[in-house]
Amino acid sequence: MISLERGNGRFLLRMTIVRMGNDYCVALHGGDRSHIGAVALAVPGGLGSADIRVSVLPLPGHQERELAVDTARCLAGVWGGTVAVSCGIHLDDATPEEIAYVLAVADELVRDAMQRCGKEACPCVSS
């Protein structure tokens, strides 16, 4: 199991990665309250295929859908296995600037995860 952290205070995010054979289970959470807001499952299309199928189960009223999908798709493309991502980040009364900052911190965590698992770059993560 790999545990990563980025940010501080109410902007502290955590990522936990459990390798299961060739697959991965990832929890991305933090903010004022960790929770489950969306779960995404990314499945690579097979040997030689660039296609990655992603299914998502968002909870009604939660905003983590896009982050869960993007994280799962990116990591599955880089690691080559099926990736399940549970994502839940809550910030009380967040401003658009705070949301943008949290998304940047999440991108940093994805980069950290790839480096810890032997991959340096992912085209899905903003530079």
UniProtKB/TrEMBL annotation:
Q: Which InterPro entries match?
A: LpdD_chaperone-like
Which intervals hold domain Prenylated flavin chaperone LpdD-like? Answer: 8-116
Name recorded for this polypeptide: Prenylated flavin chaperone LpdD-like domain-containing protein
Protein source organism:
Pseudodesulfovibrio mercurii
